[in-house]
Amino acid sequence: MLKQFKKIQITVIALITAIIIGAAFSWKKVSIVETEMIPGHDNGWLEPLSIISANTPLIGEGSGVDIGPNGNIFFLHRAGYSFTNNQIINQDVVVIYSGKTGEILNTWGSGIFKSPHGITISNNTVWITDIMLNKVFKLNLDGSIIQIFGNDYPFYLEACLRIRNKFKKLPCTGTAPWYARPTDVEVYADGSFVVADGYRNSRLVKHNPDGSVSWEVGTIGQNDGEFHLPHGLAKDDQGNLYVADRRNARIQVFDSTGKWLATWSDKAIGRPYGLDFFEDHIWVVDAGDSHEFRGGKERSQILKLTREGQIVNRYSSFGGQLGELNLPHDIAIGISKKVFVAEIMNKRLHEFSEINNH
């Protein structure tokens, strides 16, 4: 027994040594791109309507929002828990509001998640990422689980990933499919789906309907096709993917096969966190720099872009009052072009209306 324990000790020490040596030779500095407020475009085209979650009990950080059947609004939040929470949340984290009246229709999600991050409604199913469980959940509209994607970590992987927080190019891998703080999902009509494997792997992974890997693209970096935290996803009616490349302060576009098509790095876009596609336009929420690094500038924006990345309109307002935003995290466009924004710092779901169809 003692000999076996010593062998395990030697193996672990050798592994850690190899990781450190590998890290020393694979280091690559990837800085966070700083942004700034660019004048123009903001012409009063959005009207703040309400804090739709105002009367909802036990609301936490507003992490995600999407539109479901009948225009109903699915709002994802973290109850009273934080981004780094590592215990199962025993409170409902999904609230479903009527798209017509705003009344609460249902809540669910207790006992499943630790830190839910992104939500997508597609084909009458709900998809939610959890950045602490490192899983992607496929659920029915009532919250019952259909399938969970993402293999558990082997014993060494968490240590490797923590070291890679400093040594960005250190190779760490698990048994596919595996994720390291996945942020968002987009789903195709045939049941295949793409995961933004964001915080630690900086890649996109497309899966076949059975969960097997079809392709993956990306690594950490600032070149076209590389990412520094792919955070939010949107998919247009041609199957093209739009990626909020958050720490690179840009949006990248890929086709359904993973081929890079374009990079939008207009400074006026700011720092995109969440995206949505609606009627030939890409909608974006920008959360500024104050939550990205110390001393960063406060800013919150909603932007409407063409398919080519040109800014059509922009709404800017930072704070905690009606019409003001603080760390807008996700966006969805609903019935009658109502615009819904999930906010982290204000812990709420904000409702706007587009004026005169700008």
SS field, number of helical segments? 2
What would you say the CATH architecture is? 6 Propeller
Secondary-structure element series: HEEEEEEEEEHEEEEEEEEEEEEEEE
Query: What's the main sheet like?
Result: 4 strands, antiparallel
**Using only CA atoms, what is the Rg?**
20 Å
Strand content: 35-45%
Alpha-carbon distance between the two ends: 74 Å
Explain this structure.
This protein has 358 residues and is mainly beta. The protein has a single domain (44-151, 176-354), classed as Neuraminidase. It has helices at 2-26, 157-164, and strands at residues 46-51, 62-67, 73-77, 94-97, 104-108, 116-122, 125-130, 135-140, 145-149, 184-187, 193-197, 203-207, 213-217, 230-235, 241-245, 250-254, 260-264, 272-278, 281-286, 301-305, 311-316, 328-333, 338-343, 348-354. The strands form six sheets. The chain has a four-stranded antiparallel beta sheet, with no helix packed on it. A four-stranded antiparallel beta sheet has the order 2-3-4-5, with no helix packed on it. A hairpin with a 2-residue loop joins strand 18 (272-278) and strand 19 (281-286). The radius of gyration is 20 Å and the shape is globular. The model is unreliable at 23-27 (pLDDT under 50).
